Amino acid sequence: MTTECVTVGEGESGERLDRLLAARLGALSRSRLKRLVEAGQVSLGGAAITDPAMRVKPGQSFLVALPAPVADHPQPQAMALPITYEDEHLIVIDKPAGLVVHPAPGNPDRTLVNALLAHCGDSLAGIGGVKRPGIVHRLDKDTSGLMVVAKTELAHQKLSSAFARHDIDRAYLALVRGVPSPRQGTIATRIGRSRANRKKMAVVATGGKEAITRYRVLRSFGEKAALVECRLATGRTHQIRVHLAAKHHPLIGDQVYGRAAGTALPLAARAFPRQALHAQIIGFRHPADGRQLRFSSELPSDMLDLMKILESI
Fold it and tell me: Do residues 180 and 228 lie in contact, with contact meaning Cβ atoms separated by under 8 Å?
């Protein structure tokens, strides 16, 4: 347990208590501080204050008790992690295909979260009072490539806001059936749950959420396949997979959205065991100092091998 003392200045008279604390204690979110006030962890003159909307007066000194972060339910599990960048605020991982991001039914452990808990240890400052890594975006289990994860509450808040504003530079490389025409363009639709299969996403005429993917063909393999760069203006579930499938160019190896594809491929390419999708680039402003960061990842060996197969077409 640690404590912070916040004294109200002349220009802060009449401010809400939770807003004052959020402005002074920048490492904690306002919602987190509001919960601490309601839990009686903020005191004035030795008396607990439980109203986060209390209007403060100049000269008042509030003591804020900050409980040590408690362990999250997932357990630390030491695993090899390909780390692209790390500091006290965040970590960038080059996730291998096959690694699930967060524990869930069917994948209770051996996930990226379990590995991060083991790797980061006491360097996790706590998010919402819980010692856990801040997952601000996800990659599908069988999608490889770059992910940024927050290690502090401030980083989690700032990165989450950047993703919500679509203020993140993200580029993916996909190997698809056929060659998209035109070779460069924008796919703009709405994406929602499929009415035929609630486990799948689909392009929908009404409802759903706006989804925008900008693509360009980097290389074609005859008329049967292509290497496509995709940049996300939005971040919907399975967005690239759904958009390219809707354009009749599903990802090679996509067992969910590519089964109906009619483009003939060599048997070795048809046997590719995952969707051929790789998160190649991620760029964002550092949540603590505002530096512009940009990271790039090479195609993994299995996609390089698939390209060699496609070169023989």
Answer: yes
Instruction: Yes or no: say if 146 and 94 are a contact pair by the CB < 8 Å rule.
Output: yes
Structure tokens at 138: 């996800």
All residues at 6 or more sequence positions from 272 whose CB lies less than 8 Å from its CB, including other chains:
252, 253, 302, 306
Buried b (16+ CB within 10 A) or exposed e, 262-282: ebebeeebeebebbbbbbbbb
pTM for the model: 0.77
One domain, residues 152 and 276 = no
Same domain, 260 and 176: yes
At residue 6, the pLDDT reads: 94
Rounded to whole angstroms, the Cα distance separating 246 from 290 reads 38
* Catalytic residue check, 109: no
Q: With a cut of 80, say whether residue 71 has pLDDT above it.
A: no
Handedness of CA 132, 138, 144, 150 (dihedral sign): negative
Q: Which residue of the set 18, 72, 140, 142 is catalytic?
A: 140
- Final residue of a structural domain among 164, 188, 221: 164
Backbone angles phi, psi at 181, to 5 degrees: -135, 125
Q: What is the pLDDT of residues 111-144, one digit of tens each?
A: 999 999 999 987 776 666 666 788 999 999 999 9
Q: Rg of the chain's alpha carbons, rounded to an integer?
A: 23
- Provide the CATH number for the domain around residue 104: 3.30.2350.10
Chain segment 91-103, per-residue pLDDT in tens: 999 999 999 998 8
Give 263-309 pLDDT, tens digit per residue.
688 888 989 999 999 999 999 999 999 999 999 999 999 999 999 99
213 lies in which domain range?
169-311
Return the structure tokens found at 217. Answer: 């063909």
Estimate the crossing angle of helix 30-38 against helix 17-24, to 10 degrees: 130
| CA dist., res. 220 & res. 144, Å (int) | 22
State the Cα angle at 304 between 238 and 202, rounded to 5°: 15
Per 3-state DSSP, the chain is made up of helix, strand and coil in percentages (nearest 5) of 20, 35, 45
